[in-house]
Amino acid sequence: MPTYILLMNLTEQGIKTIKDAPKRVEESIKAFEKMGGKFLGFYLTLGEYDYVSIGEAPNDEAAVAFALALGARGNVRTTSLKAFTKEEFAGIVKKLP
Q1: Domains located in the chain, CATH noted
Q2: 8 confidence band (pLDDT: 50, 70, 90)
Q3: pTM above 0.70, yes or no
């Protein structure tokens, strides 16, 4: 399955209810898995983003649907990245003219 990285920043609502965030993370993982995804990791981070999450999804549509559903809850704003393994990267480079 393709790998996706989700970069997240807390909204005003999200920071006001930060004590509930661990429960929201667990609920989100379960929702992602129900959509056919596989959770690989979640991190609270320092710097430009508050959270980083990594997972595998069956396809781009499922990954986008999850990111949209997460954003619709109002606690985070997301930036989604599709990630390629080093093996996939080597295969892509081999196709260059």
Answers
A1: 3-94 (3.30.70.920)
A2: very high
A3: yes
